[in-house]
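User: Assemble these into one structure.

Assistant: Restating your components, then the assembled model:
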Amino acid sequence: MRPARCGQTPAHGQGEQNWQEWHQHYDDPGSSLAGRLRVVQRDLRRALAEAPRADGRLRLVAMCAGEGRDVLPVLASAGDPLVSAVLVEFDPGLASTARATAAELGLSGVRVRVADAGDPATYADLAPAHILMACGVFGNVTMADARRTIAAMPMLLADGGLVIWTRGHFPDDDRDPAQDLRAHFEDCGFEELAFTRPDDAHFRVGLNRLSSRRLFSFV
Ligand SMILES: C[S@@+](CC[C@H](N)C(=O)[O-])C[C@H]1O[C@@H](n2cnc3c(N)ncnc32)[C@H](O)[C@@H]1O
């Protein structure tokens, strides 16, 4: 199934996609989505090892988390009681699935919040995250929204915090939008730790670290 393209969704809400159905593509190990999942989970394992912590504790926030298929199994296999996570998902059904999975996996440090991940108020009571996930987000919003979200990420992150993000690219698009996003992360003070662009798949996965909060330096 082809995900919605950049700019197809309205400014508020979840867009017109059936996200329950979308998640079923994870069940086919040969699907592009399953391939993307393997890369995101690999990067998340790395992020858990390399992210900063506060007194040993690590906080993760996932925007538009869906069923949490990327985050929850990795947290379970890490088995680290000092890791806590907030999954933000608009759809109550998907959130309920994520909550049930977290409970099955014994992840008592995971909270699933049914809320609008595009509203800064959703994060207002959260301490800065050490890992921020934005997977399956940028391909469903306008490039202007994606840029604004990246520009706001430093406010959601602890110093040195890591971001894992994804973006699709379709062969009939002249320009790979992930390239613009990579440049924008750099402009917003993030260094790139990894960027995965498989030759045989249309997904891209980025892992970036917040390396500067400076507004400017004279050159
Ligand atoms: C492409 S799916 C990605 C799900 C998950 N991050 C993943 O990669 O498996 C997009 C998800 O964003 C959710 N969503 C859409 N708009 C949202 C919003 N404003 N706030 C929170 N979640 C939203 C949808 O319900 C859907 O679960």
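Helices lie at 19-24, 32-50, 71-78, 92-104, 143-156, 177-187.
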